[in-house]
Amino acid sequence: MKVQLFSVDALGHNILESLGIERIKAFLNNNNVNVRTSYINLVLNYTMNEFTEVANKIDFSCDIFGFSIYHSNRKEIIKLIEIIKEKKPNAIICLGSKYASLCYENLINEMALVDFIILGDGETTFLYAINYLENGGEVCNIAENNVYIATKKNYTDREVCSLDINTLPWPDRSNLKTTSSLFAYVCDMHGCNGNCSFCGLRHAKMKLTCRTADDLMQELIHIYNTTGIRIFYFTSGSFEIPGKRGKERIEALCKLLLEYPVKFSLRCYLRAENFDDSDKELLLLMKKSGFSYVFIGIEAGNEFDLKVFNKRAVMEDNYKVLSLMNDANIYASDFGFIMFNPYSTMDNIVENFNFLLSQRSCYLSKYVSDLKIILNTAIYKRIKEDNLIIKDDIYKFLHSDVNEVSEFIKEKFYKSDLFKNELFFNELCELYFMIKDMVAMDDLNEEIQDVFNNLLSLLQEYFTDLYVTKDIQKCDENFKAFENAMNLEYSKCQMLLYRVRKKYIHYMNTAPRDNMV
């Protein structure tokens, strides 16, 4: 049987690689299954109700069509499935993802054209499904003897498949070789040791398994040898793993990186509570070996919200870890943050605002971010019990004054182009801080710092009026001026991004390649 797997972006992120579908492809190819992967960006097309061009990417000679589904792309995937079924009524449609593993009962009942949903890690389950169908099994009965598959006929007493990451192949990198991407994702771990109330990963009951430093290094070298890419993003929710073993793995990888003749730049996710003063030497070693950028799930600037999110870290941990990263010269200002949640008070929001200012955060999205609800997570169940759910993942606020501010933000900010234009700032930060230890930036450093200062000044002034003095009328009157000033800075970011990217590409083209091992 022929299989086509889709990664569908509906947010404008233009993801160049999905490790989930690419590793399933590698696993199935190793088992003599014909698989192709396709990437679809539907932002423009969906807005225009124009799917013709997208339909050309569908290989109708395939038998099974699989989709990695999330709340953000659900509507677009439904439309794509309708196109497939209209042209090929006997096509077999399946879904998968951590989101699908949490919400499979909702999805299987809402999406009439879906034949089955794979729960948890999909490699072995997908192979089972293919073999079952090739041997003459009926798709309607595919879940009878496999608890990792849900169908309309069998969706009770299901389980989530959790595989040891060390038993699986590296993802297929064929797609990466055909793109102009400057970076590659690397999956270093399955599962997460945290238990955040809003996260679907832990609630999907995925077991924690991690790869060795040597195996990670070998994959980095392989990607570099086949693509020339030197920038890598580790994808696990917590790279360090709590305890001595986790820190030892980091140290081992750092030493391997330092021994390798080619300089790499790396980004990873860390947890705030897992680092203290005893880790200063380790952080300096991480910086020296190429860890230039870390993403920490700070999430809140006050103790109340941290408890709502079931974070293990307290505010002292948050301040401490960011200070440690700053001392090690590791960029950590792009941390996870949620300004609004259903239980927010205006006092909590002011504390969040002051925390962002204390960290000199220039990210507009952090100043207005709201909690995104995933069905069946702990926070979803709590909100539902407290009668704050309006419909599915849409909720109301416990306090009316917070609701008023939130509605103002939705009316003004989400109907503007600010978030779309902020992407230039986000991409500038990512590339600049990932490569500035490799490439001389002396002619750009001052301009980039000026943009940061200007953005911070604009954000501080505007949101002081909104959150501290609570003058919504003044914010309404000043919004257009604020929007224009922010977009001016974002246009500068676009030009700076072009120049930074050009410098890096020149560096890549002129750096000696005979060091490749």
Polypeptide structure, described:
The protein is of the alpha/beta class and 517 residues long. The chain has a domain at 2-150: Rossmann fold (3-Layer(aba) Sandwich), CATH 3.40.50. It is built from 20 helices and 14 strands. It has helices at 19-30, 43-47, 52-55, 74-87, 98-110, 123-134, 174-177, 200-203, 213-227, 244-259, 280-289, 303-308, 315-327, 346-358, 364-368, 378-385, 400-412, 418-435, 445-468, 472-510, and strands at residues 2-9, 34-41, 64-68, 92-96, 116-118, 149-150, 183-186, 189-190, 209-210, 231-234, 265-270, 291-296, 389-391, 394-395. It has a six-stranded mixed sheet with strand order 2-1-3-4-5-6, sandwiched between helices. A four-stranded parallel sheet has the order 7-10-11-12, with helices on both faces. Strands 8-9 form a two-stranded antiparallel ribbon. Helix 10 links the parallel strand 10 and strand 11. Helix 1 packs across helix 6 (123-134), helix 9 packs parallel to helix 10 and helix 10 (244-259) runs parallel beside helix 11 (280-289). The chain is globular and about 65 Å long. The model is unreliable at 44-48 (pLDDT under 50).
